[in-house]
Write a structure and sequence with these properties.
Helix content is 83%, strand content 0%. The chain is an all-alpha fold. α1 crosses α5.
């Protein structure tokens, strides 16, 4: 039964036909796993699909890399903000001890550094949002697409196995023999 509750055509197949189908599917999996050369026409017909799969895998890698980069950026922003704030506080403290012009400059610089540290920390909120959006995209869209691709790859393997079977049967085909024509139609 298929996903709609309808009987599949292969449910009515004989045991021999199912075994042959499994044999050719397995042979296709073996060809793919060993890297043997496949029929050039079949491979050429899948070129557009393979190009789209490369784009998908590039998107998948990019999402992963972007998540890592945003996380590192957030950590480094926190560290530099903390260091900048500490330096600003240190300069302000030293300015209180020094009543000269240098003390006034230290105070102004300290205030500027503390303000800059606060502004850097303000970047963390949009970065967190970006990280959350990319993670959601990666978890939902990319993983759903990956499941669909896996199902498609299984169907493509079955299809290519059927093509191998048809090629094998067609090489033995004698159009004058009714039995062989019937066997070809089954395939």
């Amino acid at each position: 039964m298929d996903s709609f509750g309808q009987p599949r055509p292969e449910d009515n197949q004989s045991v021999v036909n199912r075994m042959q189908k499994k044999y050719w599917k397995t042979k296709q999996v073996f060809i793919k796993a060993t890297g043997k050369k496949e029929d050039e026409h079949v491979v050429a017909s899948d070129a557009e699909l393979d190009a789209k799969l490369e784009v998908f895998h590039s998107i998948q890698e990019t999402c992963t890399e972007l998540l890592k980069i945003v996380e590192k950026y957030q950590l480094r922003l926190n560290v530099i903000s903390e260091e900048e704030n500490e330096l600003g506080l240190f300069l302000k403290f030293q300015a209180e001890l020094d009543a000269t012009q240098a003390g006034k400059m230290m105070d102004a610089t300290g205030k500027a550094l503390c303000s800059s540290a606060k502004q850097r920390l303000a970047l963390c909120t949009p970065l967190s949002r970006l990280k959350q959006e990319v993670a959601t995209f990666s978890q939902r869209a990319v993983s759903d697409t990956l499941m669909t691709i896996n199902r498609m790859e299984q169907a493509r393997t079955e299809y290519r196995g059927a093509l191998l079977w048809m090629k094998d049967v067609s090489q033995e085909l004698d159009p004058d023999t009714v039995r062989q024509m019937e066997k070809f139609r089954k395939v």
